[in-house]
Design goal:
Layout lengths: L6 H65 L3 H4 L3 H14 L3 E8 L4 E4 L14 H8 L5 E2 L3 E2 L6 E10 L5 E9 L1 H8 L8 E5 L5 E3 L10 H4 L1 H9 L2 E7 L2 E9 L6 E7 H52 L14 H88 L1
Antiparallel strand pairs: 1-2, 1-6, 3-5, 4-5, 5-6, 7-8, 7-11, 9-10, 10-11
Helix pairs in contact: 1-8, 8-9
């Protein structure tokens, strides 16, 4: 079934469409660009926070690593001068509250430590992982994986470096570091209202997370996004965890190879985007109302004269040529009104001539009728005369026949006489 729309409705729809369609296209482009812009900002934010946390970790580790490196170059340490060594080690430990112990051990299984610790009989420092790792990577600073200190229950790492004593023997200088300050600097990070930061080893094992149940979970083994983090080491990614879409920025430490991950929920940053969408839709609604109003006003200016003209045409169609056509504008509609007015005037003039000609024909018809009547009367008289002539001719014909009969008889008599 075809829907028939009036001119006004068509014009209103045209103006509304003319206003709304570009607005919707612009809105779609704007929202899409805004979404990309917001996501880009979130990616930059999360990545920047991760970089800042890594910078803090590297600075923290770097300072202590430099302290350990510096004592391996001091003459009293190289000469294994116990009294001087104790002063140097004590001075280093007391200068930083995050350093739990500073110590040095050699191949002879001797160890000097501050604060003093009573080791069990037969304790062999050269068998400890920190000693072996340092010797295996001789001359370089090594940082062990975090472990829980048996006494304090705090997360601890060991920073160590192997070096040569003056007598050529191998020794290792080391310090046990409380990394709670590092872990808290990560777990206390707030990204928006619900975003957070976490810290993992280079293999994906979480060592700091706001949710304690996530600590020591290997995300590379459990989640696909964890594999991507461990593989890329640095960058951004979008992922879904427990039905929640998230954006993450992550960065790896150059000293420890640890990875800081900063996460923000999509629902949070989408709030601002949704506000923008609502505002945009309100603007579109206002534009629609204005478009309908303007379209109605303009359509009325265009359609009303045409509607009035259509009514006049209907009257003219029914034979009413007394209509008066007024020109309402100087545009195309006015030109149509002018043309129709001129056509009506021409029709009136033609009808006037037709009436005049009809009157003339009527007069001539009446004259012709009179003549016809006279001719009819003459014809009747002529007919009577002709009838009389006809009657006379009939009598003469009868007499002639009698004469012919007599002549025939006479002829027969003559013939008979001749024969005799």
């Amino acid at each position: 079934m075809r829907i028939s729309l009036k001119l006004k409705q068509k014009l209103v729809l045209f103006f509304v469409g003319f206003a709304i369609i570009p607005a919707f296209i612009a809105t779609f482009i704007t929202i899409n660009n805004s979404k990309n812009l917001v996501e880009g900002k979130v990616e930059n934010l999360t990545k920047q926070i991760s970089v800042e946390k890594i910078s803090f970790i590297d600075t923290f580790m770097g300072n202590i690593s430099n302290d350990i490196d510096s004592i391996t170059k001091k003459k009293s340490i190289l000469d294994w001068n116990i009294n001087s060594m104790r002063d140097i080690i004590m001075s280093l430990q007391e200068a930083d509250p995050n350093i739990l112990y500073v110590y040095t051990a050699n191949d002879d299984k001797n160890i000097i430590i501050y604060p003093n610790v009573q080791f069990p009989s037969g304790y062999d420092p050269t068998s400890r992982p920190w000693y072996k790792d340092a010797v295996n990577d001789f001359g370089k600073i090594i940082i062990t994986k975090p472990y829980e200190d048996a006494a304090s229950k705090q997360m601890v790492i060991t920073i160590a470096k192997a070096y040569k004593l003056s007598d050529g023997k191998t020794a290792v200088a080391a310090a046990d570091i409380n990394i709670d300050i590092l872990l808290k600097s990560v777990t206390n990070t707030k990204v928006g209202e619900t975003g957070y930061a976490a810290l993992s080893l280079d293999d994906g094992t979480i060592i700091a997370h706001p949710k304690k149940e996530m600590v020591m979970v290997n995300i590379a083994e459990k989640y696909d996004f964890g594999k991507e983090i461990v593989s890329k080491k640095s960058g951004n990614l979008k992922y879904n965890l427990n039905g929640e879409d998230k954006i993450m920025g992550f960065e790896q430490s150059k000293l420890t190879n640890w990875i800081v991950m900063t996460t923000m929920n999509q629902s949070e940053y989408a709030k601002e985007l949704n506000k923008s969408i609502v505002q945009t839709l309100i603007i579109i609604g206002i534009i629609t109302i204005l478009a309908v109003f303007i379209g109605f006003m303009i359509s009325r200016q265009i359609a009303n004269p045409l509607i009035n003209l259509s009514k006049l045409m209907e009257k003219a169609q029914n034979g009413d040529f007394t209509i008066e056509v007024k020109k309402t504008s100087n545009d195309e509609v006015g030109q149509i009104q002018d043309s129709f007015r001129m056509m009506i005037e021409a029709q009136k003039e033609m009808i006037k001539k037709v009436v005049e000609n009809a009157n003339s024909v009527t007069v001539q018809s009446e004259s012709l009728s009179a003549i016809s009547e006279e001719m009819a009367s003459s014809s009747q008289e002529l007919a009577k005369t002709m009838q009389q002539v006809a009657e006379g001719s009939s009598s003469q014909a009868s007499d002639l026949q009698d004469i012919v009969g007599l002549m025939s008889n006479l002829t027969d008599s003559i013939e008979n006489v001749y024969k005799e």
